[in-house]
Amino acid sequence: MSSTGDKDDDFGLPTVESDDVLTGAAADSADSADHLKSLPRVLRYAKLIGDHASHIEQRLIAEIHELCPDLVMNVGPGVPLEVDAGLALATELDRRAVKDNDPNLRGLSDSVRLLCLPAPRGDLHSKHYLRVARALLLSFENIRSRDDRLCCEIERLAFGWAVLPTCAHMVAEHESAAANALRLGSRMVDYRIAAAWKEGFESQKEALRSATNAAQKDAEPLPRNASDDDNLPPDHVIVARLSADEMKNFRVKELLGTLKNVVNVPLPLVTVPPLHEVRHKLLLEFPYAERVIDLVLSDLVGRRVVQLRPIILVGEPGGGKSRFARCLGQALGLHVWRTDCSRADAAFAGTDRRWHTAEPSHPFLAVVRSKTANPMVLLDELEKSPSSSNLSVGRLWDCLLAFTDVETSARYPDPALQINVDLSRLSFIATVNNLDPLPSPIRDRFVVVTFPKPAAEDLDALLPAVMTDLAKERGLDERWIPPLDETEHTAVARLWQGGSVRRLRRIVDVILCERDLSATRN
After folding, report:
1. What is the rounded CA–CA span in Å between residue 174 and residue 159?
2. Which residue has the higher pLDDT, 142 or 207?
3. Would residue 319 be called left, alpha or beta, if left means φ above 0 and alpha means ψ between -120 and 50 degrees?
4. Residue 16, CB-side half-sphere exposure with 13 Å CA sphere
5. Nearest to 307, CA basis, from 315, 299, 318
6. Do strands 419-421 and 412-414 pair parallel, antiparallel, or not at all (unpaired)?
């Protein structure tokens, strides 16, 4: 410290650089949101942490410098507050708050602790964690009547901090206490958010179902009307339109039995859910694929409805590509239509209605099955599709080109209905082990993403999903199968050093079978 007025207050803090003060003051003045500046100081910094704002430490330095120019730390850009010096600073601010009867200094003291405390380790700094928890919760009680979204964001850190001491086994030691509090706070509401989202989605589906039934007469599709587009509900499109004359065709009438709920009917577009929640769910099961998750979800930033670019996930067998694609679709709220490409051909594009086996294209059937306009189509093992150029059948690769181009998919001529259908909102994800067999036009239409192999350190993240799948295969409730004990876990870790998830499943399955046999013998 460089105070010249009171040498007794010198307790070893370095002098702040003027650039740090100016940086923090500029960042704080740029934050013009009145609802943030009116918050209690500790909640304002909690909100900044949750928003991953820049120059947070410098903002705090600027505030301390304004009230106590001789009590600031020298913190460079991007460097967190050092724990011991930060706690010393907080203690001195408390002393001055009592001495000068200034509650602003106590708020600064709480904010310093919020920024500098590390992940909890035993009883170390326990009184400081408790002090911050009380400050956060008491301040939060005073703002509950404000904007719901603001309260939701602050609640996440406040209650996550409150449970830090009892959840020490769940914290990441290399991260700060605030970062761990954010993670714990998010996990505390996962089930409530999922239940509310499901309830809202079901309510929306029921409302749409009622509106659709009311709009249909005798379960027959309505004739096409030129003003339909003007009367569409928000985030709805009409995928297939048939005029009154077209519906008189007897072959069309035969086909409409299974298609009547989507022809001339506004279908909803699944909207983008909170992406940070989707990312969190996927990272829990696929921690080794963080780069892939971020790359795929970046397509949806700023979008209102879910639509991904055509993507090819390429990686070694057993890495979890197909499961990842399915989990991605489910996390985004999409219906996933899976095609086993090893036995698929050009019938994927539909067959002509002049044949007895007339059938719409599979992407259109995905729309029919999901009753939404933007389902996901999973093309599993695309490189194994038959490569024969037999003209009576045709290759899957060739017919895919029309579905993965926006211009042609928006006006795809369905061979069964013999009308143009709008399939431009669908998302296509393919999995391959090797890109070599794929023709170059396919590679040009898809974004190629390398899917990594899980490593040994990902074992604990993979085991819950593996145990759940094995329980389903046995027709059991997963709650009936206890987690692996320490001996079983050690055996799995020794036998599986990363790589194929299928091999991990086989190892766990053998251990569970041995557990059952041992229970029978005893």
Report:
1. 21
2. 142
3. alpha
4. 29
5. 299
6. antiparallel
